[in-house]
Amino acid sequence: MATLNGRPVDRPAVSFYEIGGWVADPDDPDPFNIYSAPSWRPLLELAEDETDLVRMVSPCVEFRNADLRRSIFETQEYLEGGSRFHRTTLRTGGRILTSLARRDPDVSTVWALEHPLKGVDDLKAYLELPDEALAEDVDVSNFLAADAEVGDRGIAMVDTGDPLCAAAPLFSLGDYTVAALTEPGLFHRLLEKLARPIFARTEAVAKAFPGHLWRICGAEYATPPLLPPRLFEEYVVRYTGPMVRTIHEHGGFARIHCHGRIRDVLPMIVGMGAAATDPIEPPPQGDVELGYVRRKYGRELVLFGNLEVADIENLEPPAFEKVVARSLREGTRGPGRGFVLMPTACPYGRQITPRTMANYQTMVRLARM
Fold first, then answer.
1. pTM for the whole structure
2. How big is the CA angle at 179 (ends 132 and 222), to the nearest 5 degrees?
3. Helix %, strand %, coil % for the chain, to 5?
4. Is 227 in contact with 268 (CB distance < 8 Å)?
5. Which sequence spans correspond to the domains of the chain?
6. Is the pLDDT assigned to residue 164 strictly greater than 90?
7. 13-64+135-367 adopts what CATH topology?
8. Whole-angstrom Cα distance, residue 193 to residue 64?
9. Closest Cα partner for 225 from 259, 255, 191?
């Protein structure tokens, strides 16, 4: 909290991001629980015992009009070939829209095999979806429980998407970029439709859980090379900016999550009034060095980053130690609001190698020196 408030600290905070951010149970026998592998346990324990925890908690929502929802959406979950599939069928605007996702037992991610919106006609049909089918009721008890559970080992953070984060995955990546570039009128109507429940949810959580850090995802969908910076203003600032203002009005801190090439959009992130950003990926994954961001925007933004998870998994420990030392140096040098040493993501496979474990230990050791 001292870092978020720009106060002096005795050392930089260190977070493993999703590890320690999400609560993982290595004793859960679910075959899709990668954390049950023995090699994960020491890393999970290191995160819980030795890092500054930033628990990521998403709002618990129930759709207000359940009967209407069931008449429009149909979901089916099944196992096939050892994988878990989730199919959704949506009937709206005289069309049937379908999507399909797959989860594999040894990889902690969900693969989108089919997206519901496959063209402009599908987008127009989706816009006819009744707003009542998207209306929500919000329960914040899980935030209060997470805050109490973490105690003085860290903080609980609200984890949420913005309207663009809800809109873009309705399409395949190619179809999304075409729609966003060539159908701005329709795309704004989609963002406005999705923004209504998101804005209401943000207001409810910010009011009931004030003074906390938030992570807002979605901005990276409007960065180069996907879209030109002018559309970041259109699709992020216009819709994420009100969320940032609501959060800050209730004493919270809005952190804009944005992978990739951020150099040209950083002024707009600052202009929205964001309190922080992550993960500030170094080249070649990103297009800006941490030292540059600290010099240009460190007085306005708390910086979270900027260790690539690929380096954690692939660099030998002596080489990775140099990378960590550079991040700590660039993230704390000169005037600035604050810095949190953090990876850009986490491993998502079932096995943690000794090299990966050693590199996580290096992060803790150097941050505490």
1. 0.96
2. 90
3. 45, 25, 30
4. no
5. 13-64+135-367, 66-128
6. yes
7. TIM Barrel (3.20.20)
8. 16
9. 259
pLDDT band at 190 (very low <50, low <70, confident <90, very high): very high
DSSP string across 175-189: HHHHHHHH-HHHHHH
Alpha carbons 192 and 164: distance in angstroms, whole number: 10
Order of strands across the sheet that contains 302-307: 13-14, 338-343, 302-307, 276-278, 253-257, 213-217, 154-161, 53-57
Cα gap 223→263, rounded to integer Å:
9
Whether 113 and 100 have beta carbons less than 8 Å apart is answered as yes
Q: Which residue has the tokens 């986490």?
A: 346
**Residue 308 to residue 32: CA distance in whole angstroms:** 25
Contact partners, residue 357, CB within 8 Å, separation at least 6: 39, 42, 43, 46
Q: Where are the beta strands (DSSP E) in 169-252?
A: 213-217
> 246-249 long-range contacts, Cβ below 8 Å, gap at least 24?
246/199, 246/202, 246/203, 246/206, 247/202, 247/206, 247/214, 248/273, 248/275, 249/206
Partners of 62 in the β-ladder: 137
Confidence band for 369, pLDDT divided at 50, 70 and 90? confident
Give me 218's structure tokens.
């979605």
